Amino acid sequence: MNKGLFRFGAREVVFAAIGAALYGVLSWGTNLLQIPGAGNVAIRPAVAIPMFFGVAFGPWVGLLAGAIGNVLADFLSGYGFWPWWDLGNGLMAFFPGLIFLAIKNYRDLNDILKAEGMVILGCFVGFAVAAASELWVSGVDVATTISINFLPAFISNVINGLILVPILMVAYSAIVARSGR
Prior knowledge:
Radius of gyration: 16 Å
Helix content: over 70%
Distance between the termini: 11 Å
Order of helices and strands: HHHHHH
CATH architecture: Orthogonal Bundle
Structural class: mainly alpha
Shape: globular
Strand content: under 5%
CATH topology: Arp2/3 complex 21 kDa subunit ARPC3
């Protein structure tokens, strides 16, 4: 198997579509769990899916699973189209994908810690970009966008990612071991 960091072929298209569908539908199921006082930010445990897909299948798969999955979740929830937040969700999963080649054993603590570090970085960059858009899209000031957009999205998504991505990594390792790949 050709495992290049930025490889993007039919296999990656399929994984990106699967990741986007899972993220979109499962996020739609939890979009009712709005964080009080936050600007349209929900608690979404499903954020771990595109993050994991980035770790397991590469940065482009994560980016597309996060961005397209967010479009799907917002569409199903009736929120409309928020391109900067879609991009932010994509970036949230792109950064964990940057360690795709460095992961040798999905059960190894060092590899899990690498993934978790990138989950934090991905959430920081992704939601900083998304929240910054609110400065000109919604006309709010910096303090407001940090408190009602960035912090709620960053904190809830980091917590979900730090808890669930390692679980998905270990489960994936078991599936791969069973399939003999």
